[in-house]
Design a protein that fits this description.
8-stranded mixed β-sheet; about 40% helix; single chain; 6-stranded parallel β-sheet
Length: about 375
């Protein structure tokens, strides 16, 4: 059997028609599908800009192929929905299943085409589209947010199969009548640490944040402003930000923070990131929008106490005492000071480590297998 994977992710395409991913879409993710399907065709955006990528980021092989699709995230293409759906039908006809990762315009289009062709579809719901557009900052995004919310909610409600990366948040906002499971898309091969961290040093305390420097959702400005407030009050904290993108915009916006805000570039996922996190003291996630943040779970797996905004799936991870509102740098500063108490720090380090065990590979893999066993058995017998 063969399946389609549809999403808005932008892959890099080289001159040999090989495609690479520099984001959350990895080859390991497709290996899960290949346990059940002979081949996977990826329908997504592509960028042919020549960039050097290592073999670890190469996605295609004898079993995974790529069908480039245009960017649908603009009003002009939304008005051409019927025309674009016919293009999508030509791509997906003859396939046994469409796997649509939402929110995404290409994913929604693939679902509509699958319905017309009578092809079953499964949804992987990874983030809240309402939060993403409403908090993006543009007037156009806010105008479109209610319609985008309805379109994603409608697709999910009518789906036969849905996985959510959260335990309850996305399930409540985008419910389904079909078979569903709460399975985080985080894959940790181990829990990273077995020891509780203690805050033995007094000065400086290192704060950590992981996220793309170009993302409008990660709350980087809130993190920098909070660290600035702490240092201006005479308390020495250093903010270390790990993630791809140019730091020049942030350095120009906050030139006075150069001595206590470090942009650490990118590291390979897995052990390198875990080692980097192990050398930090507190992990903060002041995001405007999230599904269930992988970086936060990785931080918990190395016993780091965590602070985050009350958005998406973050409240499923963070103790209520350490949740803050979006864009509230003053509240974030206060929570950081609270967490700098040695007793509180040790308690939250222990809580992080225990909570992270709910996301170990074996437990999550069992849930994934149960979900895909159900999908495969239903399709193969129909």
């Amino acid at each position: 059997m063969k399946a389609i994977f549809a999403h808005d992710h932008c892959f890099k395409l080289d001159e040999h028609q090989n495609f690479y991913s520099n984001g959350k879409i990895t080859k390991a993710m497709f290996e899960i599908y290949l346990d059940y399907f002979d081949t996977i065709k990826v329908v997504a955006r592509c960028d042919s800009e020549l960039v050097d990528y290592d073999s670890e980021k190469l996605i295609n092989n004898d079993y995974i192929s790529f069908s480039p699709f245009k960017n649908l995230s603009n009003p002009k293409e939304l008005l051409k929905f019927s025309y674009n759906k016919e293009l999508m039908k030509e791509i997906i006809k003859g396939f046994d299943l469409v796997i649509s990762r939402l929110p995404s315009e290409i994913g929604l289009l693939a679902i509509s085409a699958a319905k017309d062709l009578g092809i079953p579809y499964a949804i992987e719901f990874v983030a809240c589209p309402w939060d993403g557009l409403w908090n993006y900052g543009s007037l156009q995004g806010r105008i479109y947010a209610p319609l985008y919310y309805f379109r994603n909610r409608s697709a999910t409600m009518g789906a036969d199969y849905v996985t959510y990366v959260t335990s309850s948040f996305l399930q409540k906002r985008y419910p389904t009548k079909g078979f569903n499971s709460g399975v985080s898309d985080v894959i940790l091969s181990n829990t990273g640490s077995s020891e509780i961290k203690t805050l033995d040093k007094v000065d400086p305390i290192h704060l950590a944040l992981i996220g793309s420097l170009s993302s409008p959702h990660k709350g980087i400005d809130t993190a920098i402003e909070s660290t600035k407030l702490l240092n201006e009050s005479g308390i020495h904290y250093i903010l270390n930000i790990l993630g791809p993108g140019s730091s020049s915009e942030w350095q120009q916006k906050y030139p006075e923070t150069e001595s206590y805000v470090n942009f650490c570039g990118s590291l390979s996922s897995g052990e390198e990131v875990l080692n980097w996190l192990s050398n930090q003291d507190i992990y903060i996630q002041p995001s405007l929008q999230e599904g269930l943040p992988r970086a936060m779970i990785e931080a918990m797996s190395v016993s780091l106490p965590i602070i985050g905004t009350a958005v998406g799936g973050i409240p499923e991870l963070v103790h209520e005492n350490f949740l803050v509102s979006k864009n509230d740098s003053k509240a974030l500063s206060r929570k950081i000071i609270m967490l700098s108490n040695k007793k509180v720090y040790a308690e939250e380090s222990k809580r992080s480590l225990e909570e992270s065990k709910n996301y170990n590979f074996e437990m999550l893999n069992t849930r994934r297998k149960e979900f895909w066993d159900k999908v495969y058995n239903d399709i193969s017998t129909n």
